[in-house]
Structure formats: C-alpha cells, structure tokens
Design a protein that fits this description.
Layout lengths: L10 H21 L6 H12 L7 E5 L5 H9 L4 E6 L10 E5 L5 H12 L7 E6 L9 H22 E12 L4 H11 E7 L10 E9 L9
Parallel strand pairs: 1-2, 1-4, 2-3, 4-5
Antiparallel strand pairs: 5-7, 6-7
This protein binds S-adenosylmethionine.
Length: 223
C-alpha cells in the first residue's frame, strides 16, 4: 500500500462486486422461496431497528409483488398488515388485507378506514412502511421529483394513520428534497436514521429513512 491509502477499485471490478451482491440476494430469494429479494431489505432493517413486534398493525404502501408483505406475515402472530398497491400483492396469510389502488386516492383511504374501523381498536396503525417507487423515466430531475412526491405521500400517511409512539420506514432517492424531508421527520419523531441495507443495490440512489417515536404533531407538506 502506498502511504496507507485505500486502493481505488476499477469501475469494472466495482460492477463485478455489485453484480455478485445482487446475485447473492436474488439467489437467496430463489433458494428460500421468497416472493422477491426486497424481503431481505426489510429483514435487515427490522434486525437493526426492532421494528416488527408480533402484535403490531402495519400500513404498507407500495407492497407489490409482496416481498415485504410476506416477511411481515411471517413475523406477525396477532397484528395485521394493510398492503396497498395498484399491482397484485402475494397474500400469504389471513393477517394480510390487500387494498388494490394508489395511496392518495380517496377510495384507498376509505378502504383503510373501513379495515381499521372494523378492527375494534383505535383507527391507527403502529407502523407505516413505504417502499413506493415511481416508474422511472430516465430523466433524473423528473424522477427525483416523483420519488419525493411519494415520500411526501408517506409522510401524509403517517400524519393520518400513525399512532403516537409509532414508527415509519420510507424509501428515499438521494437527491433534491431529501434533506428537507429528513429535517421534517426529525421534528415529528424522537429518532430518525437514514440507512442503506446491504440487500439494496449499491449502484442505486435508494436509502431508507427509519423514524421511531412519532410525536403525533403532524408530518406532511415537507417538500
Ligand atoms: C419497489 S416496488 C415495492 C416492492 C415491495 N416492497 C416488495 O417487497 O415486493 C414499488 C411499488 O410501489 C408501487 N407504488 C407506486 N406508487 C404508489 C402509490 N401511490 N400507492 C401505492 N403503491 C404505489 C408500485 O406499484 C410498485 O409495486
């Protein structure tokens, strides 16, 4: 080594490493019969932050094809998942209620209210998860704006449906608007971390905000 500096990887060896990592989680998903490799992202976040207790009620936004939903269904023995997506979501358990549609549409809000209303508990959830992602156009500024719109929708979901003390996990794309979003999250929650699970592709700008201890003073209109 020269002067203790870390030698830089060539672009091709970095690409090779990224492919290996991607293949590892894709292979693990196949071997272990997971719905998608996304399963491991939530598993890693849960392991680190202790998010999913067996009795929690979860509002999951952007659930298709159902990797996170299946992970949640395995973990919950008393709680429930309300899984929202316009695309089909694998429903491995009676603990999962799928709401087919886009979060933000009135009909979707109505279905969530009806499910929570029928539960006999306060019409609030313990955990809001958002892995929502836009269809990418390839135009970076436009894609970033769409991703931030979804992060704001997730903030609105927390403001509407999250119980005091609850948790929020949101996929963010690093870029314009993220710092303001995190600042608003820090005002609304006791603790906020931003992490990239190893199961997330290193070449993607995706990170996850994990916010715990909701102060129930609203959290929306951040971007
Ligand atoms: C990366 S995928 C989610 C993967 C999922 N977490 C899993 O483990 O299988 C992103 C999803 O967000 C959904 N989505 C985008 N906008 C949405 C919205 N407004 N409401 C609900 N889902 C949305 C897309 O349809 C897509 O299925």
């Amino acid at each position: 080594m020269n002067g203790g500096s870390v030698p830089k990887r060539s672009k091709s060896s970095q690409r090779w490493l990224n492919r290996q990592k991607r293949d590892y989680f894709a292979g693990a998903a196949r071997r272990e019969g997971r719905v998608s490799r996304a399963h491991y992202k939530l598993a890693q976040l849960d392991e680190r932050f202790g998010l999913v207790a067996p009795d929690v009620w979860v509002l999951e936004l952007g659930a298709a094809p159902g990797g996170w939903t299946s992970y949640l269904a395995q973990r919950l023995t008393q709680g429930r998942v309300i899984a929202v997506d316009p695309l089909p979501v694998a429903t491995p358990s009676a603990r999962v209620e799928v709401v087919a549609g886009r979060f933000g549409d009135e009909s979707v809000d109505g279905r969530i209210a009806a499910i929570l209303g029928a539960s006999g508990r306060a019409p609030l959830v313990d955990l809001v998860l958002s892995d929502m992602a836009p269809n990418m156009s390839g135009v970076r500024a436009a894609d970033q704006a769409r991703a931030m719109d979804l992060a704001e929708l997730a903030a609105a979901a927390a403001a509407q449906w999250l119980a005091p003390g609850g948790g929020l996990v949101v996929k963010l794309m690093q870029g314009d608007g993220v710092d303001a979003w995190i600042k608003a999250a820090k005002a609304a929650f006791d603790e906020v971390g931003v992490v990239k699970p190893t199961a997330s592709r290193s070449e993607s700008r995706e990170v996850y905000a994990v916010a715990q201890g909701y102060r129930a003073q609203g959290f929306a209109g951040v971007t």
